[in-house]
Sequence to fold (85 residues):
Amino acid sequence: MAAVCDPLADSSFGPLVDENCRAFDFTLYFEETILRIGTSSLFLILAILRLFVVFSRPRCIAKDRLLLAKMVSALPLESRDRRPR
Fold:
């Protein structure tokens, strides 16, 4: 017979639920704070740092007079590839 878990067991902050409830399982509150919010915020911080590094480097391609014409001529090709089939 399965043990009856307290309905508030997943509301406590801690990596483990009561051992009588489940053998080894993270609480939902712990999963949301550490595993979901923590990793998402770490990703955002690293992405912002990466943007600073990328924008602080000198450009590899120099702007010339034909840049705008090349970009405008590439737009129809790009939009053609993204049309639903």
